[in-house]
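Hi W.,

Here's what went into the run:
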Amino acid sequence: MGNVALAGSLGFLGLGDILQLIGSSGGSGVLQIFSPYAHEPGSIYFSKGNIIHAHALSANGLDAVYALFGWLEGDFEFQERQMSVQKTITANRMEIILDGLRLIDDGETKILGPPTLEKTGSDPMAPPIIRRHFVDYTYVVDEEFYGAGDKVTQEKRHGNWIWVVLDGTLDIIKTTPKGPLTVTRVGPGAFIGSVTSFLFQENTRKATVEAITDAQLGILDSQRMAHEFAVLSNEMRSYILNLDRRLNQVTNACMEQFIQAGGGTIKALQDKRPIPARELQEKKLSKIQFGSACIVREIENGRLLLASLGPGDYIGEAPFLDIGHEPHQASVYASGSLKTSEVDLKPLCEEYEDLSLTLRNLIENVAVNISLTTNAAGNFLKRNRQKIR
Amino acid sequence: MANINLKAREIEVKIVYYGPGRGGKTTNLEYIFKTFRKQVTGEMVSTRTEGDRTLFFDFLPMGLGKVKGYDIRVQLYTVPGQVKYASTRKMVLKDVDGVIFVADSIKARRMKNMESLKDLHLNLKDYGISILKIPLVLQFNKRDLAEEGIPLLSVSQMELDMNRQLKVPSVAASAITGDGVGPTLKACLKLTLQSLKTQMGW
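Here's what came out:
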């Protein structure tokens, strides 16, 4: 292995800049790009600053470099070492950069991001998969092995453990009147268990978790995490628990769509009016003091009620998380009496930055879960509407 | 701010040609590439952006000498003006050191010039650069077309249209014959180096 010579976030330094930087310093080695939306990193190989080879998922050579321009989120790492790979790219570095950016601007390169609702995948009804490029071992105190078909947790039973998936795939299953529903499917890097485990009270499992392949799980030091959680500010704790509440509501919405109980007019919206999009600023978080609000996703042939909020709940999202709801991907309907107070984001962001990696990953896991479960619910709604027609 | 390459002991200065489509940015670059062939270190890179080409090459101009023991390497770019080329433009305009605005002297293109200049102002602003502070040179291109009887804007009219507030050097040019191309670049390099010296406290 070589030495990591340069590493950072793609949000700060884009691929175009990174390629120039490595180029102008004449580096030899491999640049790896990690995206939360790709199950393996993409790689670009350099010899004396020139790009000689690349691969990203199924693409190789120049196509892979262009595809990597679409990986806008994630991290990169450049390791310096002597390269002995077959040279497949001879194009000039600057030409690659300019072409790579142009293909993005022309819309020819796909931007890698969370699966969106409007995209037609191979099977839109398949449960979304949560996994991360990075498996977090920091708080793992023990490892467990489950064979395919084994149950890790049982819905409605008690339990406080939190696991991180080290290997294998597992289903998160909810019981519904129409039979079991796999809400999401988790893979390496994803977490099993909820932040409510930190509350030192009886914690009931909200879902059954079943291994669908042989799986290896890491048990996390929940005592240590609970302690870390307990010393957070009130605002941070209440925001994190609120995220978990939002996830539960979205999961319920997904189940309702699955058993087709939803649909028709949404009663909760009758006394509410939509808040105009311009008033829902990006990167703003407000807390409801009085009144109520609903989070709704508008889909081409229907509305999906995602969450009903009351005093103490939050509207918006903190800048460090993406839950795929308001302000961009969901509307907010508010009762006439709604009063909110704005949350000061600066201390919240600073606190988040100081969290341990594992706790941050766990919180991000909740956010990703909200986003994906919402999409799954939307897919069920669409399917239901199609059946009605 | 220019990039200082410690390994190569070079200061990389980035000059961007901006202006309305088909105004002659590419012709300027092609002329420089041909004429200063010996000083050009790499090849000319071009990517076909809609309605316009985006070009790049870098060269080591003679006669600029060394600054604090560093050679000056000049990177020349053209930038696509269309709104949709945001990522390309962002990369090109990031850390730009000097701008050459190539205006079209054809009378019918008067509005296009002014729109493009305004666009440059807004784009630079997005990257935290003031058009009044960045080293900028105006080039009034296609002066040769007067001989073919095509109605052109007078230089004083163009000054009035574009340079009333900016008050930057301007050069009448004909990129197709090469007239004024060198002097435009030279004027821009001069301003850019002066500005770098002030920025770096030399």
